[in-house]
């Protein structure tokens, strides 16, 4: 019996299991995958307690990196309560139109001061003066601008994963296939390709979600960040089960 029990092991993580099912479930865990990467890098494995500690530390570091701050767009006279909504605003067509007008009025230096991050008490004091100079300012909640004014690249025949522009939808799909290895699973059964791509565009360009990781992966706070992730990781593909 002891010999049978010891046969269900993971040498990589130095653990034993009561049965084959527990062993198989272990192979699916992030801890096991983490130790595999360490093995490839010729580093010693870590136990599950150390792995969980590192995960918590990483989450804490990520939260600190995305510290609470207000961001103000001088071009549009809008105050955003989160970096996420501010980044989505910068990608919107309305912002770009107002920015062109703003830069003409302000000159070249206006571009550098179009958006201001406000964190410290001193900055907030100076920021209040600047807002008074700008006149009436609209305060925008986290998703208010994001939902209404983001640009859908499919409507403009733009690529989901880069800045490439095509003349029509067919050329756009071909570009994404050749350049990014993107394909539509069971395409012959898809009766609304444009609608499907529009839905994917919402996830990527509005919600900043990797369409392969879906909502189970990392959190991204800008369109550039999620696009870079998908291109670098080879995630320019649909999650299809």
TrEMBL record:
Protein name per its UniProtKB record: Cytoplasmic 60S subunit biogenesis factor SPCC550.15c
Compartments, as annotated in UniProt: Cytoplasm
GO molecular function: nucleic acid binding; zinc ion binding
PROSITE patterns: ZINC_FINGER_C2H2_1
InterPro entries found in the cross-reference section: Matrin/U1-like-C_Znf_C2H2 (IPR003604), ZN622/Rei1/Reh1_Znf-C2H2 (IPR041661), Znf622/Rei1/Reh1 (IPR040025), Znf_C2H2_jaz (IPR022755), Znf_C2H2_sf (IPR036236), Znf_C2H2_type (IPR013087)
Family statement drawn from the similarity comment of this UniProt entry: Belongs to the REI1 family.
Domain C2H2-type: from-to ranges: 10-32, 73-95
GO BP annotations listed: ribosomal large subunit biogenesis
Record keywords: Cytoplasm, Metal-binding, Repeat, Ribosome biogenesis, Zinc, Zinc-finger
Highest taxon of source: Eukaryota
Native source species: Culex pipiens (House mosquito)
Assigned GO CC terms: cytoplasm; preribosome, large subunit precursor
Pfam families named in the record: zf-C2H2_2, zf-C2H2_jaz
């Amino acid at each position: 019996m002891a010999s049978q029990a010891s046969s269900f092991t993971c040498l990589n993580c130095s653990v034993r299991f009561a049965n084959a099912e527990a062993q198989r479930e272990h192979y699916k865990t992030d801890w096991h995958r983490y130790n595999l990467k360490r093995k490839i890098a010729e580093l010693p494995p870590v136990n599950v307690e150390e792995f969980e500690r590192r995960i918590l530390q990483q989450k804490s570091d990520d939260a600190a990196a995305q510290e609470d701050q207000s961001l103000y767009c001088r071009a549009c006279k809008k105050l955003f309560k989160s970096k996420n909504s501010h980044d989505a605003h910068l990608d919107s067509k309305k912002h770009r139109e107002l920015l062109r007008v703003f830069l003409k009025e302000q000159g070249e230096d206006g571009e550098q001061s179009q958006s201001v991050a406000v964190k410290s008490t001193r900055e907030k004091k100076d920021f209040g003066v600047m807002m008074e100079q700008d006149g009436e300012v609209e305060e925008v909640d986290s998703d208010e601008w994001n939902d209404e004014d983001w640009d859908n690249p499919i409507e403009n025949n733009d690529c989901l994963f880069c800045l490439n522009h095509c003349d029509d939808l067919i050329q756009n799909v071909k570009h994404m296939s050749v350049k990014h290895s993107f394909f539509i699973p069971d395409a012959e059964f898809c009766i609304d390709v444009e609608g499907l791509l529009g839905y994917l565009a919402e996830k990527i360009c509005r919600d900043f979600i990797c369409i392969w990781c879906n909502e189970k992966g990392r959190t991204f706070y800008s369109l550039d960040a999620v696009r870079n992730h998908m291109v670098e990781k080879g995630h320019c593909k649909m999650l299809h089960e």
